[in-house]
Design a protein that fits this description.
With 91 residues, the chain is mainly α. It has one domain. The chain is 44% helix and 7% strand. The chain is built from five helices and two strands. Strands 1-2 form a two-stranded antiparallel ribbon. The longest helix is centred in the last third of the chain and has 13 residues.
Length: 91
C-alpha cells in the first residue's frame, strides 16, 4: 500500500490512477412489490412506449438467459442493467 502526505492535493493535481471499478452485485436483484409477474409485462413496464419497445422483445431477452424462468430472467436483467463499469471522471 502506498501512502501520500497529502492525498487530496494529488487528486486536485490529477496525480492519481484512473482505475475502472465495478458497481453492483452478482447476487441477483431484488424485485419489489408491484413488479409484473411475467417477462413481457416487466419489459413493457421498464422500457415503456417508444422505439425500444419494438426492438426488445421477451423472446430476445429470454434467449440471452437460457434455462431461466421469467422471474429469474427479470432478476438477472435487473442485475445486469444496474451493474455497470464506470471510471472516475478526469479532474
Amino acid at each position: 500500500m502506498t501512502v501520500f502526505d497529502d492525498p487530496l492535493q494529488r487528486i486536485r493535481q490529477g496525480q492519481i490512477a484512473h482505475v475502472p471499478i465495478l458497481l453492483g452485485s452478482m447476487e441477483g436483484a431484488i424485485l419489489g412489490p408491484g413488479t409484473p409477474n411475467n417477462l413481457s409485462a416487466f419489459l413493457a413496464d421498464q422500457i415503456g412506449p417508444g422505439p425500444l419497445e419494438t426492438l426488445i422483445s421477451s423472446t430476445l431477452v429470454r434467449a440471452l438467459y437460457p434455462g431461466l424462468s421469467d422471474l429469474q430472467v427479470m432478476a438477472a436483467l435487473e442485475r445486469d442493467v444496474t451493474s455497470r463499469w464506470c471510471a472516475p471522471p478526469p479532474i
